[in-house]
Design a protein that fits this description.
LDL-receptor class B repeats lie at residues 1-43, 44-87. The protein has 179 residues and is mainly beta. The chain has no helices and 13 strands.
Length: 179
């Protein structure tokens, strides 16, 4: 799945399949300007920053069990969001400090370091990398991903895929080759 935020005409947090199909709104009320998003892949939670409402909130992948983690003026200066173990990590754009927020009570907020001009943050750790199983976009014997001549996108499951073409090409009637 692909998760993303939008704060155009109607602010929301959405998800869809990797090929863009099955687009679903998971948060579409009491949300104004969601600017950062982080996923808890183990427990299947979506966290986001709303800089207009000055809040950090969370829902499950279906948009249920919504909770506010923390609220306050300091939120409007945050950018980027990552989750690891018991904490959320973000950047304070006023002073470029890396902040750590307890994701269960939101009260334990600590500045950890200062990184000049930082705008985004990511946590890379072996435990956050899910095991990859065989999937529909693996290269075929001719080296073509999922048998697609240009681009292979996972669809509704790891067993399904959709072929797409680069700009200037159209998908052939076989659903795999680009012309």
């Amino acid at each position: 799945k692909l998760f993303f935020t939008d704060y155009g005409n109607a602010a929301k947090v959405e998800r869809c399949d990797m090929d863009g199909m099955n687009r679903t709104w998971i948060v579409d009320s009491k949300i104004e300007q969601p600017t950062a998003l982080a996923l808890d892949l183990i427990n299947k939670y979506v966290y986001w920053l709303d800089i207009y409402l000055e809040s950090v909130e969370v829902v499950d992948y279906q948009g249920r069990r919504r909770q506010t983690i923390t609220k306050g003026r300091q939120i409007r200066h945050l950018s980027g969001l990552a989750v690891f173990e018991n904490y959320l990590y973000t950047i304070n754009s006023d002073n470029f400090s890396v902040l750590r927020i307890n994701r269960y009570n939101g009260t334990d907020i600590q500045a950890l370091a200062r990184l000049e001009d930082a705008k985004e943050i990511r946590v890379y750790q072996k435990r956050t990398q899910v095991a990859v199983r065989s999937h529909a976009c693996e290269a075929d014997p001719f080296g073509m991903p999922g048998g697609c001549s240009h681009i292979c996108l996972l669809s509704s499951s790891y067993k399904a895929r959709t072929c797409r073409c680069r700009t200037g090409f159209i998908l052939g009637s076989d659903g795999r080759s680009c012309k």
